[in-house]
């Protein structure tokens, strides 16, 4: 019983508690539902900054952060949590705050979709969710918010279309959907928004046409739809948007012409149509836009002349018409005395004529860009009337004449681009007055004279580029006054004298380009202060002397080109920047070893030290240069073997070690360099066999191993080099057969195997190398057998040298069809028989010292059995035949002589034209035995007189013979 | 408006940042060529326009004065078209573009290549006419245009090319008659085969472009 009592008591208590607690919850929810939902919302949001900290049941909810309550303190009417660092999803529970008029959650990190439940907030006037991480569609339910005046949900990742339902928001003043990924079209229903003042759709993927219904937005002041994919024409109906102040349709695909109706937008201040496909002329009606301040029509296909006048466009400040096809000149009355125009950009059009003098009335101009047009003539001396000008860009035109001295009065000038014109004369000394001048580009003109010392008064100068003029004299001694100089280019002028030591005080200098001048002397010691320097090119000058040791202090150097000078001594001062990517010291007189410290420049891609007097071996440390693409050490005095560490340089594309005294065998690891395109080891002391692994360098275009002591067979793997253009193995001791696999090198245009010990016959497969063009040289070997008929396939071949071999048999007739052949040498073999008739164009020496060749230019063949006749005997026979034929057809001879006379004229003409080339050929054919040249003439000297008369007769004979044969 | 202003300034700045390139006209010309070509096997990979000259580019050969004298892109599986800029290669002697898939017209500016010895455009998809400007190629010895889709007649002006040794236009769609003057007297008939040509020119009887 007692226990029973206890349990019932207990039950009562529990019941009481549970009732009490439920009552508490209910009363709380009842009396102020908003606070309940707000707390729910708080619990669903992540609030790392703690903005919602005072949202607690302990305080009256109207005191909570960001809240605005109704007058009776019962409902929340405004909630502003903008920029509060909130994240998480937007809780659908907001929909219970039915009194809300303003909801501002902008500039947080809220993700997820815009809850469609927000459509239940029937009192909402402002909904601001912009600049969050929201995704998904714009919920059509927002169209239910009939009282909505401001909807800004841009700068999110919203996708899908702009819902048509938005057209139902008839109270809407501001609609912001910019910077999302919305696609589809602008719904025509937008025209129902009669109250709309601002419509921002920029940076989406909206396509299709701009709906003409937009003209219904009668109150519209700002319409921005730039950076979409809108097409079609700009609707003329937009001319009805009388309140429009800002119209930005830039970077779409709008086409057609600019509607003249836009001229009715009398309130327009900003019109931007850049980056479309608009064509036609700029409508004159735009001149009616008297409020217009900024007009940008650049990057379209506009043509015709510029018909805009500041006399009407009185408020115009910025006019950008660049990148069109506009013609004519700048309109003469663009500016009147009191215009406000301060930016005028008409670059990259087809404007022509002289510098528009009326432009000088635009005294408010600060930035003028006439670049990349067809302007010509001299610059007006009154240029200084543009006294406010800071940027003057006249580059890429055909301006001529001098730079007017009055330019010195343009005291605000900061940027002067005159490059790519035809400016002549000197730089006016008045330029020294320009204290604000920072960038002076005069490159690619025809300016001359010396660089005025006064230029060094322009203390703001950071960039000077005088490249490609004819400036002479020396670099001003006071150049060091330009303390702000970052970039100095004087390349390709006629400057002489030494580099002024003061240049070393331009301590901000990063790029120094003095190449292609006549500068001399040594590098000043002051260069040690140029610690910012990363590019220095001095190539093609007459600099001399050793490099200052202190250059080793310049740790930022990345690109150095001192090639083609007369520098002496060690190159080690240039090997201390670990940032080097390019070092080119070609053609100097540097000596000593190659410093191993170069290997510290891990990013080195090009190292060119050719044509110096460098000694000793290639440093093994070069194996660390794994980025190296171009290594040229040719024409030095290097000795020793090629270090195997170079096999680490897997990016090597060019390896040029020719003309040194490098010894040892050709390393087989070369076959692992898969990027190799050019390998030149020629004229060294390499011995041993050519490694078959070389066949793995499948990208090789040029392989030069000539002038070494290589022996053994030419590896058949050479046939794997299917990209090869040039193969030179001459002047070695290669023996054995020419590998037939060479036929796979189908792209060969130059093949030299001469001066080796090659035996066997010429492989007929060589005939497959149909791209052979420069030369096929097999001379001075021990090749035997007959000349393969297939060589007649080498239709592009210009030079063929088979001389000094043991070839026998006859010359295949097929060779006669090689019409490209300019030089031929078959001499010093055992060839016999008739040579192809087309070979008569080659000199006698091409065939000398053979067994018994005949046919022109050699003695004629008399028959298959008979020995070729001696010259005198041949002459006798010819004379006999001539007499016989003369008797037979005297009349015919007369006609033939007439024909011959015409023919002779032609042949004389063509031989004159080919004279120089023939001289070259002779040199080549006779090779080292120049004496034979004279012998040749001596042999024939007795017949010179006869030759003239017999030539015609001989021709006759041949003609009659061939006629006979053809019958 | 700040954006376009900034952009145009950036553009001009970008242009001005590379002034060192502006008189490397041969390198620029080749680089422009590259931009017109589709390079399926990356043979033009080494064509770095930032180098002082194109002499170390693969498939380009220079003389000792760093002027381009050879362009070897035969059998290189490239397509696209040629442009006027090739005419800038004033020192070019060998233009080897054979056996590719290059199409479009042969630019008339190739006629400016006064030092050209050999022009091998055979085995491509060139169309249009043989430029009359080729008559200016006073050094040319080898002109091979065979196996293309060339139309029109053989320009009579080519008969003045006294150095011409090889002229091959076989396998095209040329019309008219075959010239007989100058070097054309010695070219074999195979050089004209497979066209719509009407045999050798009969001066005074029919016009040279008879049947075009």
UniProtKB/TrEMBL annotation, chain A:
Entry GO MF terms:
kinase activity
Identify the domain of life: Eukaryota
The leader peptide range reads 1-25
Q: Which GO terms describe its cellular component?
A: membrane
One Pfam family hit: LRR_1
TM helices/strands, residue ranges: 873-897
Q: What is this protein called?
A: LRR receptor-like serine/threonine-protein kinase
The opening ranks of the lineage are: Eukaryota, Viridiplantae, Streptophyta, Embryophyta, Tracheophyta
Automatic annotation (TrEMBL), chain B:
Give this protein's Gene Ontology molecular function annotations.
kinase activity
Q: Name one Pfam family in it.
A: LRRNT_2
Q: Where is the signal peptide?
A: 1-22
User: What positions does the domain Leucine-rich repeat-containing N-terminal plant-type occupy?
Assistant: 24-63
Q: What top-level branch of life does the organism fall under? A: Eukaryota
The Disease resistance R13L4/SHOC-2-like LRR domain covers 71-171
Q: What is this protein called?
A: Somatic embryogenesis receptor kinase
